[in-house]
Amino acid sequence: MGEKSTIHEAVEEQFRCYMIANGMRQTKERYAILHAIYDIEGTFTIEDLQQTMQDRRFHVSTGTLYLTTQLLVQANLLIRHPFSSSAAIFERIVDDRPRSYQICSHCHRITRIKSKELAVSLENYHPRSFSISHRIVYVYGTCTSCNRALHKRLRLALKQQ
Ligand SMILES: [Zn+2]
Fold first, then answer.
1. Mean pLDDT of 139-146
2. Where would you tag: which of 6, 71, 85, 105 has the fewest CB atoms within 10 A of its CB?
């Protein structure tokens, strides 16, 4: 509970500073969206976010959700994953620990990679003329079930030849 409210306070402050620095209006909606996002664990789409807002009986348009998520990405408070799925996939940034993901190019399933080695090398990367906000690595490939399905289709296709 305490940890959760501390995160919420910290991100609200960061967002406030970002909006002030860029001469943006601080609206109730923007803060409500920020808090909703920081209550979502793992990845989410705009549709998921809309559902979360609806559950909270807070009505905002899809346009506002798109615009606010864009602002949060620019403020380094939100990750927009560069996945090739049709819907944009977002994730909050709760700590500065490096993250790595493996993505299936077929079904777009995303899984967190828990590799200490990878995390350590990411942590040790300190470029001279670039200020890092978050460290993320993506690994692309084919998941087990897609691999199985591909092989099955291949066997069937070969049989029909
Ligand atoms: Zn797959």
1. 95
2. 6
